[in-house]
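Practice problem: predict the structure.
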Amino acid sequence: MNPRDGLAPAAALFRSLADPVRLAIVRRLAQGEARVVDLTRELGMAQSTVSKHLACLRDCRLVDYRAEGRQSFYFIAAPELLDLLRSAEALLAATDRAVALCPNYGTCSADAASSAETAAGRGDGT
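Answer:
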C-alpha cells in the first residue's frame, strides 16, 4: 500500500483553500452570511471574480447559499471549516508564520521568482 493512498481528498481540500481570493471569501463568510454584492464591496473584488471563486467553494461543498427572493446569501456549509481555519491560525502563530519564508510556498517565493525572471531578461514569465 502506498503511503499517499487516501490523501488526495485532503490535498484537494487544502488546494481549494490555497487561493488567496477563496481564503478571503471564506474568512469573510466565517463572520456571517453575505451576498455577492457584499463580498465584492467588502473585499474590493470584481463580481465575476467573487462569483467564480464562490462556485469553486460550492463545488467543494465548503460554501452554500440560501435564496431569499432574488438574492442569494452565501454561508459556510460545514462548521468544521471554521475549526480548520482556527487551527491554521494557531499553527501559523506557533511557527511564527515561518511558512511565509518558505522558498517553495512563502510570500517571498513569488517575489523571488519574478525578480529572477526580470534579472534573466525574461519578464514575460517564460
